Amino acid sequence: MSARFDLVTLDVREPERMRAFWTEALDLFETEREDGDRWIVLSDRAGVRRIGLQRGEPRAGTVHLDLACPAEDFESELQRLVSLGAVPMRPARHEQYGSIVNLADPEGNAFDLCAYDA
Questions:
Q1: So what's the pLDDT on residue 15?
Q2: Facing residues of 41 across strands?
Q3: Which of 22, 38, 81, 101 could hold 86 in an S-S bridge, CB 3.0 to 4.6 Å?
Q4: Contacts of 16 (CB under 8 A, 6+ apart)
Q5: What is the pLDDT of residues 69-108, one digit of tens each?
Q6: Alpha carbon distances (Å) from 28 to 1, 3, 51, 91
Q7: pTM of the predicted structure, to 2 decimals
Q8: 85-101 burial string, b = 16+ CB within 10 Å, else e?
Q9: Helix, strand or coil for residue 61?
Q10: Is the Cβ–Cβ distance between 9 and 24 less than 8 Å?
Q11: Taking the mean position of all CA atoms in its chain, how far away is CA 56?
C-alpha cells in the first residue's frame, strides 16, 4: 500500500490558542487529543480530519493554507479572521483569478484568503 494524504499539521507554541483560532476560523471541532495539548486534531462537521496541531517550535517554510470564500464575502471574511487574531501580511489585492490577502495566524503560520471570480 502506498502512502496517502492524512492532514495538514502545524507545529505551534500554544496549542490551545491555535485550537481556538482554527476552530472558529474554519468551523472545525476537536476530535483527538493526546498528552494534554501535545497533539490536537481538528475535523470538519463530517468528521474528516483537517488540521493537526502539534506542540513544538514553528519553523519557517514554504507551505501555507489557502482558504476560499465567495467573492461577495471577501471583505467581511477578512475582517472576521482579523477579529479572531489573524494578521494581514500585505494589503489585499485583486489578481487575474480574483481577490487574495496574505495572512498569518496568531503564531505566524502563513495562510491566504482567496475569493475566486466566476
A1: 95
A2: 32, 52
A3: 81
A4: 37
A5: 999 999 999 999 999 999 999 999 999 889 999 999 999 9
A6: 30, 25, 9, 27
A7: 0.83
A8: bbeeeeeeeeeeeebbb
A9: coil
A10: no
A11: 17
Residue type, 69: C
Written as one letter, the residue type at 14 is E
The DSSP output letter for 15 is H
**Residues 42 and 28: beta-carbon distance below 8 Å:** yes
The whole-number pLDDT of residue 113 equals 95
Q: Copy the grid coordinates of residue 57.
A: 517550535
User: What are the cell numbers at 110?
Assistant: 502563513
**Which residue is listed with cell 501580511?**
89
- Identity at 48, one-letter amino acid code: V
**CA-wise closest residue to 40 among 27, 55, 26, 28:** 55
> Mean pLDDT over all residues of the chain?
92
Residues in the chain: 118
Q: What sign does the CA torsion over 103, 7, 17, 72 have?
A: positive
- Which grid coordinates belong to 62? 514554504
